[in-house]
Amino acid sequence: MTIGSGGGATNCAVSFAKKELKTAVVVEMGNDPQSLIIHRDLEEVGVDTRFLVQEPGETTAVSVILIAEDGGRSIMVHRGASAMLTKHDVPLDDLKTRWIHISSLGGNWELLNTILTWAKNNKIRVSLNPGSKEIEQRDKFISLLPMAEILFVNRDEAKLLWGIDYSEETLWKSTQALPGAYVTVITDGGRGGKVAENGKVYFYTGEKVKKVVDTTGAGDAFASGMIAGVLYGKTYEQAVKWGVRNATAVLQHVGAKQGLLTLGEVSR
User: By the 8 A CB rule, do 220 and 246 touch?
Assistant: First the structure.
């Protein structure tokens, strides 16, 4: 049994920090033993933790992950305090940044709209990796996408979001542009994925892995790797390769953070 921290926000924060990007994270958690693990994992790589929200009486979110022989997993989740983050917990006036990455907000429409509007007004670049609760509010969510530079969804999520049956290979291979964010990345596991960039569509392939140990966190690793590439001046297409390398490394370890690459490793 392995115990470690997870969640899209902290996974990506650790990944950015390992790539020598000055990083802070805003998440809500309890004041309990589980929260100490999160603090440890963030502080070990130099993530700024001053914006962590800890409320008395709340419990830190906990997941139990069962990993199969092929690296696939089943996850049981208690969202706990992570579902209680509101716009009042996010100190927007204190955030001095050039990029903000938003993971699942538990379907909190008001919070998502507040952050995106603030980012747009302050000319801050934004990437989005939504959860199921955001995608369930399909029309509302799509209306906000023009305020995001990069959207990350997987193949199943893309089907729900745009109503396109991507299980059909002919539709999946279509080069039809998608409305919404400037760049939309649709991941397809180890097979790779497709990218719609301002009307241009192209595909990418994954790297071969001898043995997949655990798929947990691979999506976060891909997104954070690609974003890091863009922040270091790579084109979106070049940055995808950083995402693939980062995700491939994570697949070969247990947990979402253990295999995350450093700047030197991902830029090889």
Answer: no
Q: What does R_g of the chain's alpha carbons equal in angstroms?
A: 18
CA dist list (Å): 204 to 41, 76, 130, 185, 236 = 31, 31, 21, 10, 12
pLDDT bracket for residue 169 (50, 70, 90): very high
Average pLDDT of the residues in 188-198:
95
Beta bridge partners of 193: 187, 204
Calpha distance 252→244 (Å, rounded): 13
Quote the CA–CA distance of 232 and 223 in Å, as a whole number: 14
Residue 141 tokens, joined: 């969510």
Backbone angles phi, psi at 179, to 5 degrees: -75, 155
**Domain boundaries in the chain?**
8-260
- Mean pLDDT over residues 240-262, rounded? 96
pLDDT value for 91: 94
| pLDDT number for residue 135 | 95
- For residue 28, which of 47, 10, 12 has the smallest C-alpha distance? 10
Q: Where are the alpha helices (DSSP H) in 58-123?
A: 109-121
| Region of poorest pLDDT, from 30-44, 48-62, 65-79 | 65-79
How far is residue 268's CA from residue 265's CA, in Å, rounded to a whole number? 6
Please report which helix (H) or strand (E) contains residue 74, including its range.
strand 73-78
Which positions ≥6 away from 149 have C-beta within 8 Å? 125, 126, 127, 181, 182, 183
Q: State which amino acid sits at residue 151.
A: L
Does the domain at residues 8-260 carry the CATH identifier 3.40.1190.20? yes
